[in-house]
């Protein structure tokens, strides 16, 4: 049992979670809470061929969480925030990253049932090209290597990763994700090419059906949801050296999403989203590209006074977050981080 597990049990056993939820409805919060999800699934698969780290929750878990949000908070979008949403007593924004198909098929009906708006940060290139996101493709390549090891090129340190069994595959996948998140965009592309040369390709139907279509996005808008940008190709923006390439990822993606969705895009979620990677120069480029808000993927909440609109923190409602931990994260974000 981790220290966080023990703390959550203590908070529940002592009645602190119930008392905190009860008290929440009777006072205003001096903060904006933003929840971060990736995917909602019907049930957790035992043997998943892609990146299981983005399987945030099951539909049943998501429904329980949204019932809690609807009861105890005043959900809004970034457009609402810009129009004075800070005046709400307990503001909260639900967000989804990447643009997976299950966001439309499974999450949307739950959101509508509880009257909770959400912001969907879509990666425009994945919707246009119908390809696997790089992290999902890397996971597939590990599981479908033609030999018992994968040899990486010099841009990834020239390592050899054994992939002969499930445990080796799990370790190799984790290592590849860490490497890919530390590499410049072009080096990450070369890493994927190395993996492709040593593995069998995924079936085309898998890529075709994994991400939302633009029709799905338009249905989200029609249902009162908000669409944000997660760039064009999900690079680490701080590693994009060329000005034209950065413009394509920021302003270009925003234009494409607005063109296809028919709705204004005012918010961005930084891919990977580490706080230390968002320099002042990058924040200025985001602002110049027309965004009013930008979200990190770092734990925390945002104070009503003195918040940074281009470094908004989020609470990660992801894998391993059961309902007690979800409540603890939302009610006591300074105590419970993971």
Describe the structure.
The relative contact order is 0.16. The strands form four sheets. Strands 1, 4, 5, 6, 9, 12 and 13 form a seven-stranded mixed β-sheet that branches. This protein has two domains: 3-128 and 210-331, TIM Barrel (Alpha-Beta Barrel); 134-201. The model is unreliable at 10-14 and 16-23 (pLDDT under 50). It has 14 helices and 13 strands. With 338 residues, it is of the alpha/beta class. The longest helix is centred in the last third of the chain and has 19 residues, at 243-261. Helices cover 45% and strands 14% of the residues.
Main sheet? 7 strands, mixed
Distance between the termini: 13 Å
CATH fold group of the largest domain: TIM Barrel
CATH class of the largest domain: Alpha Beta
Q: Report the order of strands and helices.
A: HHEEEHEHEHEHHEEHHHHEHEHEEEH
Strand content: 5-15%
What shape does the CA trace take? globular
**Rg:** 20 Å
Under the CATH scheme, the architecture of the largest domain is Alpha-Beta Barrel
Class by alpha and beta content: alpha/beta
- What is the CATH homologous superfamily assignment of the largest domain? Glycoside hydrolase/deacetylase
User: Would you count the extended β strands for me?
Assistant: 13
Q: What is the number of domains?
A: 2
Number of H- or I-type helical stretches? 14
Helix content: 40-55%
Poorly predicted segments: 10-14, 16-23
Mean pLDDT: 90
List keywords for this structure.
TIM Barrel; single chain; 14 helices; 45% helix; 2 domains; 338 residues
């Amino acid at each position: 049992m981790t220290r966080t597990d023990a703390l959550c049990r203590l908070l529940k056993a002592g009645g602190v979670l119930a008392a905190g939820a009860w008290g929440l409805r009777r006072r205003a919060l001096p903060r904006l809470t933003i929840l971060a999800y990736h995917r909602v699934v019907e049930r957790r698969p035992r043997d998943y061929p892609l990146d299981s780290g983005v399987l945030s929750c099951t539909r049943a878990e998501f429904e329980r969480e949204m019932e809690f949000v609807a009861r105890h908070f005043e959900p809004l979008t970034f457009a609402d925030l810009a129009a004075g949403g800070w005046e709400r007593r307990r503001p909260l924004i639900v967000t989804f990253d990447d643009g997976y198909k299950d966001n439309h098929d499974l999450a949307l009906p739950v959101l509508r049932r509880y009257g909770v708006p959400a912001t969907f940060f879509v990666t425009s290139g994945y919707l246009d090209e119908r390809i696997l996101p790089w992290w999902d493709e890397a996971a597939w390549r590990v599981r479908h290597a033609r030999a018992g090891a994968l040899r990486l090129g010099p841009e990834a340190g020239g390592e050899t990763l054994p992939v002969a069994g499930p445990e080796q595959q799990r370790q190799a996948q984790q290592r590849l994700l860490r490497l890919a998140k530390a590499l410049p965009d072009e080096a990450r592309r070369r890493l994927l090419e190395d993996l492709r040369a040593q593995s069998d390709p995924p079936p085309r139907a898998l890529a075709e059906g994994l991400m939302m279509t633009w029709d799905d996005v338009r249905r989200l808008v029609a249902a009162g949801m908000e669409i944000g940008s997660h760039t064009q190709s999900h690079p680490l923006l701080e590693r994009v050296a060329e000005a034209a390439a950065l413009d394509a990822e920021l302003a270009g993606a925003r234009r494409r999403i607005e063109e296809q969705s028919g709705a204004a895009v005012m918010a961005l979620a930084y891919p990977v989203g580490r706080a230390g990677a968002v320099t002042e120069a990058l924040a200025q480029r985001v602002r110049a590209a027309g965004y009013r808000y930008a979200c990190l993927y770092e734990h925390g909440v945002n104070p009503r006074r003195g918040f940074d609109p281009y470094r908004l923190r989020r609470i990660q409602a992801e894998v391993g977050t059961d309902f007690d931990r979800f409540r603890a994260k939302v009610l006591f974000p300074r105590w419970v981080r993971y």
